[in-house]
Design goal:
By secondary structure, this protein is mainly beta. The chain contains eight helices and 53 strands. It is elongated. The relative contact order is 0.06.
Length: 698
């Protein structure tokens, strides 16, 4: 037995070193954004008045040209055939600018108070140029609007956005650009798109700003109200392309789809971001009575969960998509027991066999009476011709995440307010080193398919289904407040339907920082192991006995820091008995009220720790470096605590009027205590405590 334990510990250490080594290398590569984007001098605004330029005056249904012969007017179309600087002033009521250069170099389009509308197509079509630069002149407002339906002479390589560019595009300057798209996207660039200034206001039925190979933005003000994705990169074929790099600016994104979506990397160094997707997390959770009767089933939350979190056949998918009541959903579950096996809930014989705990717990998502996936603040009908926005709905298969990347997300600064229907931050790997992040979501707040690395910043998760989730989560520094309807921090388990790696490789590692968790499901849940070497962790876990404040499959090595974990006792766990720092777990005969005081002193009555859990609890785990082996302590409870407090953890404390206490001696790294072993009214009774690993006595 001892030999097997040593082998397991060795393999765990090797996995930990491998995990950290690979993760650190990936993180270092993300920090250096110069490897993702570089700027040329021409990407930044410069005065044009002293340079040679061609003035194009827009006059209703036509235009006049004052300058070289590089530009030609043909009917209501203006063709740019050579490189150079072209200044646009006035209004073109129904026309188009086409850039199609034959020589090499840059084309600069200066919008000096220009309004361009097309009733048949895209007003700006960049067909061929090494690079096109759109400059927004200071103190000007420039407006572009397109047709509701585009008319094509042929369907090959035709524009699909109000500004459509096949080659590199830069937008700069201190002026304002308003884009009112009616057909599809607002700005779509097939190559690199860089924005280094200006105020850009966009409404569009589909996506807002697309840079296929690269989307890089700094020092700009971006306002988007779109039916699809807000900011987007789309090149999934070339490994070095498909990135989004945001360095500074102000972004207000109201998207029916994802707020920011990249095929590869999202790297954010700074800026201010307000992101709302899918209408945001505004839905109301129904009571179990409303659910069990099959009434008020207007939201597809259960169906979306089944469609996106378990494997079902195409035939069953079609059945689920047509469900209108809970009873119909239940009938499909009963007919397909393999679905119930994947979500680990018992199959009832009828709807009444679901208990309130099963329906209100973490087994299934809850329903709501709100309209499914609404787009918040839809655009006026006269400005939009989009079925998505006209119906005030987002299709059920549309992704509605806040920030999403297929490979990695790196946040190194900035201020974020994310209100998302689905995951707020979602990627294969997620790295956060700085910034202020506020999240409210109906799904996970921070979800990595692989690794979450947290090294700094201040993250406040006010609402989530699960707070922070990944196969590996590493917390090194920063402050994190997590409120979750299910698990607060979750290390994903192996899915039997896939070829994912063994759960032995899955780890929650806490090396520092401050983590507060308030969860209705498990507080810290690892389908592998947990290791804590530093920092402060406060967990106010479930009040139901289906979950626990701490839940892990293998080991919880407590090696440093301060740990408080309070909640129910049905599935409560302590830490592993081979931990190097001492821990106690107190279990009470009945649930204690929220804000019940607990105060631990040593044999000389010196304060060790003081806490008032903010939720009801029946068990509490406490670990601090001040708990020493072979020393005697007293846990007082039921009195009055006063002093400095943060999230229920006190210091410089005054404790008065205590009614109960437990005296104990630390003889093992994990000590379990029970309320039966109390000293009442200063009268001692027989002391009882034990040092068994893992779980508290029932």
């Amino acid at each position: 037995m001892a030999k097997n334990q040593m082998i397991f510990m060795f393999l765990s250490l090797c996995s930990f070193l491998l995990i950290c080594g690979c993760t650190d290398k990936a993180v270092e590569e993300q920090k250096d954004i110069s490897k993702l984007v570089s700027y040329e001098k021409s990407d930044y605004y410069s005065p044009w008045q002293e340079d040679t330029f061609t003035l194009i005056q827009l006059k209703g249904i036509t235009a006049t040209i004052d300058g070289n012969d590089g530009a030609v007017v043909e009917g209501n179309q203006i063709f740019i055939y050579t490189t150079g600087t072209y200044v646009f002033e006035g209004a073109l009521d129904d026309g188009q600018i086409i850039v199609d250069t034959k020589d090499s170099g840059n084309v600069r389009l200066v919008f000096n108070g220009a309004t361009i509308h097309s009733s048949t197509t895209s007003p700006i079509y960049i067909k061929q140029a090494d690079k096109t630069i759109i400059t927004l002149e200071e103190n000007t407002i420039n407006t572009l609007t397109d047709a509701s339906e585009y008319v094509y002479e042929n369907v090959t390589d035709q524009p699909t956005a109000t500004i459509y560019s096949k080659d590199d595009l830069t937008i700069n300057g201190p002026g304002t650009l308003t884009i009112k798209s009616h057909f599809n996207d607002a700005i779509n660039c097939n190559d690199d798109l860089k924005i280094t200034g200006g105020t850009i206001d966009i409404t569009a039925p589909d996506d807002g700003i697309i840079g296929s190979d690269l989307l890089a933005i700094k020092d700009a003000i971006i306002n988007l109200t779109v039916g699809g994705d807000g900011l987007k990169s789309t090149n999934h074929e070339v490994q070095s392309k498909g990135h989004i790099v945001l360095e500074s600016g102000t972004f207000t994104i109201n998207a029916g789809g994802d707020g920011i979506q990249s095929e590869k990397i999202v790297a954010i160094r700074g800026g201010k971001y307000t992101i709302t997707t899918g209408g945001g997390g505004q839905k109301r959770i129904e009571t179990s009575e409303e659910i069990s009767t099959g009434t008020n089933f207007n939201n597809r939350e259960l169906i979306e969960y089944l469609l996106h979190h378990i494997e079902v056949s195409d035939e069953v998918k079609k059945q689920l998509e047509g469900v209108e009541t809970y009873d119909k959903a239940l009938a499909i579950l009963q007919a397909n027991p393999e679905m119930l096996q994947q979500i680990s809930i018992p199959m009832p014989s009828d709807s009444s066999s679901f208990s309130d705990k099963q329906m209100n717990g973490s087994m299934l998502p809850q329903f709501s009476t709100a309209s499914p996936n609404p787009v918040k603040q839809p655009l006026p009908q006269e400005e939009m011709n989009s079925p998505i926005l006209q119906n005030n709905r987002v299709p059920s298969n549309k992704s509605t995440k806040g920030i999403k990347a297929d490979t990695s997300i790196s946040i190194m600064g900035g201020t974020f307010n994310i209100n998302s229907l689905e995951d707020a931050i979602h990627g294969k790997d997620i790295f956060i080193s700085d910034g202020i992040i506020h999240i409210s979501t109906e799904d996970d707040a921070i979800h990595a398919d692989d690794t979450v690395t947290l090294e700094g910043g201040n993250v406040n998760i006010a609402k989530s289904y699960e707070g922070i989730e990944g196969k590996k989560i590493i917390i090194r520094d920063g402050t994190y407040h997590v409120f979750a309807e299910d698990d607060g921090v979750n290390i994903q388990g192996e899915n039997s339907q896939t070829n994912q790696s063994n759960n032995d490789e899955r780890l929650l590692l806490i090396e520092g920082g401050y983590l507060y968790v308030n969860a209705d499901g498990d507080g810290l849940d690892s389908n592998g192991s947990i290791r804590m070497t530093g920092g402060t962790v406060i967990v106010y876990g479930p009040t139901n006995n289906n979950n626990g404040p701490l839940d892990y499959d293998h080991t919880f090595l407590m090696e440093g820091g301060i740990l408080i974990a309070a909640g129910s006792d049905g599935k409560a766990q302590g830490v592993s008995n081979n931990s190097s720092q001492n821990t106690i777990m107190m279990t009470f005969l009945k649930e204690q009220q929220a804000n019940t005081s607990l105060y631990i002193t040593d044999s000389k009555e010196n304060e060790i720790i003081a806490v008032k859990p903010e939720k009801e609890f029946q068990s509490i785990v406490i670990s601090t470096p001040d708990l020493k082996l072979n020393q005697t302590y007293t846990l007082h409870y039921g009195g009055i605590l006063s002093g400095e407090s943060i999230d229920g953890l006190y210091r410089n404390t005054n404790y008065q009027n205590g009614k109960f206490s437990v005296e104990f001696t630390i003889t093992s790294p994990m000590t379990f205590l029970h309320e039966n072993n109390v000293i009442k009214e200063n009268r001692e009774v027989n002391l009882f405590f034990h040092n068994e690993p893992m779980r508290a006595p029932l």
